[in-house]
């Protein structure tokens, strides 16, 4: 693992920075301790007793995604690819978030399932349920390891501790408050962490733009560097996708990222859905992802632009160094695009502000890892342990089991952090994982929700076939058989997984027996009474500003405007 501290790139943190960090850690652990007093059952631990207001779950929804990979990974993408990275937000997130709120949450929340895999069990039976549960659990451990590795990299840069020591210390902090207070501790900390992250990144963006002469100055510098003016327009995004053809690039972005990867992640990923399930009503659950979409629109301006500024101002990432990294090599200093935000903080922020910025980064890492752990412990405890190993134990047994599972997941994440360390741009790694796990799940899920004929056998066979096809694309790209630079391999892999899953599911359905229609009420759109999907419009759910449809329409108009403007 490259150790930046050894390359004399240590952040110049002073006593005030450490005091701010210490205060932040005490606050985080305090929230975990207070949340523990509200946990008296497994539903309290895993789903916050379904009692939280929409504004809390909405901010937690977006903060859970605003983890290390989002902040550092998108800044890395900004440094490497420029503005096309905004597609991960405006094309690759918001439409799917709105679809989740308007279409999917009534099914999830109305059925009172405790997890997405449990919904799969009710619709398709044990085969698809177990396949989904195991694949989801594996994905969360891998992603938690990536969050943990980046968190440890910051501690290494700040204190000079060896990476492995930093990983263990960081893991223990996250484990402490997640195991104490369960999902409530994770969610309330995620709300806090959202504001800390914004407070850290907004000053960095403003100071960075001032240093390069404003937006016009940034345009001039990026245009004259590696990548050129193409990094200043979000479309067609050829450098990001790796395609030479504008048409194929746009197709890959719209279908691969905007449809398969995006909808696969946001509509079926229990990390996000779990936050909405913790809401106190159907209306609040629907509003959760829509409320999160408002800040999601603006996040590119505080994560991508700092990456672009770092690429033209930080010595280790400029000129030949940047070109070497783009070409797949390494900079002489050992720096990678993953370090863009850290190096920009080192060069621009005074002490005190630097402490806030470091706390913001650590907040993002802990938010992401805690989200992975809280969703992992729910799925493993309910969908694997309770469903197949220990079925009829008292509720207190599963509550205690959830805490032990959280500890075990943390240990496993420490191991998978080593895998993440092999990628110079962790967004490449993340998108590969999504193509393996989320894309085929979305195909199975959406087909089963709108096609009552689809059978249980088709579901699990389709899932496995889709995942296998994405792995084949990955191996072809890794071995050089298929030249797919950038993140094109993940886009193609996601598309292949989706298409293969659909094709196999349809073929298997035609030769297997479907379930009785009476068993699918509330699980298939055409068989579900409309009144069971209606939200409350009285009390705390009254008012036009609490109308999910209206809020979604506002978000959609603003997102279209951003795509046109940039």
UniProtKB/TrEMBL annotation:
Cellular component GO terms held in the UniProt record: plasma membrane
Family annotation (Gene3D superfamilies): Sodium/glucose cotransporter
TM ranges: 15-35, 55-76, 88-109, 130-152, 158-179, 191-210, 247-268, 289-312, 353-380, 401-423, 429-450, 457-477, 489-511, 544-565
Principal subcellular localisation of the protein: membrane
Keywords of this entry: Membrane, Transmembrane, Transmembrane helix
Pfam families: SSF (PF00474)
UniProt subcellular location: Membrane
Membrane disposition: Multi-pass membrane protein
Domain of life: Bacteria
PROSITE patterns documented for this protein: NA_SOLUT_SYMP_1 (PS00456), NA_SOLUT_SYMP_3 (PS50283)
InterPro entries: Na/Glc_symporter_sf, Na/solute_symporter, Na/solute_symporter_CS
Record CDD domains: SLC5sbd_u2 (cd11478)
GO molecular function annotation: D-glucose:sodium symporter activity
The family this protein is said to belong to: Belongs to the sodium:solute symporter (SSF) (TC 2.A.21) family.
PANTHER family in UniProt: SODIUM_GLUCOSE COTRANSPORTER 4, SOLUTE CARRIER FAMILY 5
Name used for this protein in its record: SSS sodium solute transporter superfamily
Source organism per UniProt: Amycolatopsis methanolica 239
């Amino acid at each position: 693992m490259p150790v930046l501290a050894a390359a004399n790139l240590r952040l110049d943190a002073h006593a005030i920075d450490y005091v701010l960090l210490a205060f932040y850690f005490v606050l985080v652990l305090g929230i975990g301790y207070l949340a523990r007093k509200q946990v008296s059952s497994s539903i309290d631990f895993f789903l916050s007793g379904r009692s939280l207001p929409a504004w809390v779950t909405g901010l937690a929804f977006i903060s859970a995604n605003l983890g290390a990979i989002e902040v550092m990974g998108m800044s890395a993408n900004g440094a490497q690819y420029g503005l096309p990275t905004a597609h991960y937000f405006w094309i690759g997130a918001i439409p799917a978030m709105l679809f989740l709120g308007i279409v999917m949450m009534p099914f999830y929340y109305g059925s009172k399932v405790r997890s997405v895999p449990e919904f799969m069990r009710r619709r398709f039976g044990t085969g698809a349920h177990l396949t989904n549960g195991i694949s989801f659990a594996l994905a969360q451990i891998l992603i938690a390891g990536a969050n943990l590795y980046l968190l440890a990299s910051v501690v290494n840069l700040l204190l000079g501790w060896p990476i492995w020591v930093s990983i263990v210390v960081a893991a223990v902090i996250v484990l402490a408050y997640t195991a104490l207070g369960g999902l409530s501790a994770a969610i309330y900390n995620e709300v806090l962490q959202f504001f800390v992250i914004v407070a850290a990144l907004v000053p960095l963006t403003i100071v960075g733009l001032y240093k390069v002469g404003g937006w016009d100055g940034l345009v001039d510098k990026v245009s004259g560097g590696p990548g050129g003016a193409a990094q200043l327009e979000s479309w067609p995004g050829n450098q990001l996708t790796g395609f030479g053809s504008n048409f194929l690039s746009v197709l890959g972005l719209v279908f691969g990222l905007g449809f398969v990867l995006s909808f696969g992640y946001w509509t079926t990923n229990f990390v996000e859905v779990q936050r909405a399930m913790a809401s106190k009503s159907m209306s609040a659950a629907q509003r959760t992802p829509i409320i999160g979409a408002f800040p999601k629109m603006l996040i590119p301006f505080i994560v991508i632009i700092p990456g672009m500024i770092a690429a033209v101002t930080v010595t280790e990432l400029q000129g030949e160094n940047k070109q070497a990294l783009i070409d797949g090599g390494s900079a002489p200093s050992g720096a990678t695009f993953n370090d863009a935000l850290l190096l920009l903080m080192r060069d621009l922020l005074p002490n005190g502000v630097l402490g806030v910025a470091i706390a913001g980064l650590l907040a993002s890492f802990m938010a992401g890892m805690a989200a992975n752990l809280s969703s992992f412990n729910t799925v493993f405890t309910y969908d694997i342990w309770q469903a197949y190993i220990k079925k009829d134990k008292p509720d207190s047994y599963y509550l205690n089991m959830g805490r032990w599972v959280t500890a075990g997941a943390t240990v496993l994440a420490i191991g998978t952090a080593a895998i993440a360390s092999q990628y110079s741009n962790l967004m490449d790694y993340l998108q590969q994982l999504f193509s393996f796990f989320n894309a085929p799940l979305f195909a199975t899920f959406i087909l089963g929700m709108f096609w009552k004929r689809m059978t249980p056998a088709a579901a699990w066979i389709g899932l496995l076939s889709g995942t296998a096809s994405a792995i084949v694309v990955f191996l072809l790209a890794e071995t050089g058989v298929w030249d797919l630079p950038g993140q094109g391999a993940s886009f193609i892999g996601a598309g292949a997984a989706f298409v293969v899953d659909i094709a196999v599911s349809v073929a298997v359905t035609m030769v297997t027996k479907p379930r009785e229609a009476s068993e699918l009420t509330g699980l298939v759109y055409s068989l579900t009474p409309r009144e069971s999907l209606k939200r409350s419009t009285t009390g705390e759910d009254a008012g036009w500003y609490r109308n999910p449809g209206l809020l979604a329409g506002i978000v959609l108009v603003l997102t279209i405007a951003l795509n046109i403007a940039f």
